[in-house]
Amino acid sequence: QVQLMESGGGLVQAGGSLRLSCAASGSIFGINAMGWYRQAPGKQRELVAVITSGGSTNYADSVKGRFTISRDNAKNTVLLQMNSLEPEDTAVYYCNVEYWSGRYYATHWGQGTQVTVSS
Fold this sequence. Notes:
elongated, mainly beta, 11 strands, 119 residues, 7-stranded mixed sheet
């Protein structure tokens, strides 16, 4: 089994910063992509940022220049540094990893962490 432990969500004023962390553990023989998604009330889940095993990154247009994704391959951890937060960033943020189980590639979601930005 695979477990994803997320942390770092909370309440912050507009213009503030938060850092989300997600640590993967369990039956993982290698991690390919690691990413963060978010879902606001009444909206579909959307990609925020993703980083490959080689360090290539991709961001949603709405967060470019404000958010930075990084990973520590030795610790199977992905971080999301969120600066200049806006009320529109309020959502539940989910960690996602694509990993090799030893037999096949699979993806796994974290339980989600709430980020609330007040105006």
